[in-house]
Every structure is written in C-alpha cells, then in structure tokens.
Amino acid sequence: MTTTISPIGSELLDQPGCPDRLVRTALREIGVANALFGGRAAAAWGVDQLLPAVPGRPLSLLDLGAGCGDISLHLVRRARARGVVINPIALDRHREAARLCRDGDLSAVVADAWALPFADRSVDIVVASQLLHHFSRESGAELVRALDRIARVGVVVADLYRARAAQAGIWIASIALGFHRVTRQDGVTSVRRGFTPAELSRLLLSAGVRGVVARRPGYRVVAAWRASRAHG
Fold first, then answer.
1. pTM listed for this prediction
2. Which residue has the higher pLDDT, 186 or 55?
3. Is the residue at 231 inside a domain?
4. Secondary structure of 8-67 as H, E, C letters
5. Which of 144, 167, 172, 175 has its CA 20 to 30 A from that of 182?
6. Contact by Cβ (8 Å): 127, 62
7. What are 123-172's pLDDT values in tens digits?
8. Residue 6 falls within a domain, yes or no?
9. What is the DSSP letter of 6?
10. How far is 172 from 78, CA to CA, in rounded Å?
11. What is the 8-class DSSP label of residue 134?
C-alpha cells in the first residue's frame, strides 16, 4: 500500500503518540461541532437513503472512526422515533474514544481501519463520518472497498466539503465556542483535506462502487450506496 495518511497537513488524531487528555478533549469538541454544524445530520441523511431497502428487523450499524460516539447515539435516537431499531458498534483506533463511547453505553471496539475485525457481509450498515479525509485518495478508495465488503445493506460516507469559507467558518466558530487550539487547527486542516462532490464520486468509482453523492448543509458532502451483492 502507498502512504495511507492524507498528504495535506497533519492532524492531532493522526498522531499515534497523541496524549490521552488531548484525544478526549478533541473528540468531545468534534461531537459538539457535529451537533451544531451538520455532522450528525449529514450521516443521518445518508442512512435515510438506505432505510427503504432494509428488512423490518433490528439493524446492526458499524460506526467507523466513531470518536465520542455522538453520531451513533444520534442515529439510534432518530431511528427509534421512526420505529426502527439500530444496534450500533462504535469502532475507533483510539482507546480514549472507546472509553467515551462506553461511557455513552455503546458497544465499542478498538481496531485499525486496515485490520477491521469483521467478516464480509457481517454488518447491515457501515457509517464512516469524517474519516475518509484522513487518508490519501488511493488509500481512501481501498478503504471504501473494505467497507463495501463488510456491509450487508449499504454504506454511508459523510465528510467535509472543501471550501475557503468553511475553513474560515470553523476557525471562527471554534474560537467562539472556546475549543482547544489543537481542535481549531485540526478543524481547518480537515476542511483542507475535504472533498467536492465530484471528487468523492470519482473516489467511489475508483473503488468500484456507485452511490448517491450530495452536498448537505454545514459544508458537508455525503455518499450512500447499496453494498455490492447486498442482501437482507
């Protein structure tokens, strides 16, 4: 495999030696930003594209790169209001992330994206929120293929829309919210690493999958697709 990490900038959460205290702070602040600036809503929109195709039974959902677990908890609550049961599994390579998820009563697994402990077609829906931009485009396509293999029903990739206005916006908003300086810097780098809808579409095609790709509020871009050879 070629270099896996995005060549654009460096983020706190990319560093294996990042102090636990900073990891917890950053992940909690990302959860706040997700609630305020469209991260949760973007992932939920993607899941909505898949729900008409699912059977009337409880659904397993893998939240890859789960952070503090805020996306999983939001999806569970939202589905419950619609009479749909989602059983989430939160996965992150940071042990502090797993601890935060367990604090929220989520099942959590510590694992690397390149050594996922899941068999093919073992999870109904896979969600990767704000994860893909951490990788180079080639490695991102390889990850998309892996997620497609794991999913029985479909996959949602929700990420950031790259725009100068979004960079300025996250910097100003994070100052107003009192975020840690590292979170502010990582936020700007994350946007610089983001995607346009056309770029995300091309990445999916290079991975051999086709999906709905759309811009969503809060400078978000979301892809959702039925898994190859999907079945209920």
1. 0.93
2. 186
3. no
4. CCCCHHHCCCCCHHHHHHHHHHHHHHHHHHCHHHHHHHHHHHHHHHCCCCCEEEEEECCC
5. 144
6. yes
7. 999 999 999 999 999 999 999 999 999 999 999 999 999 999 999 999 99
8. no
9. -
10. 30
11. G
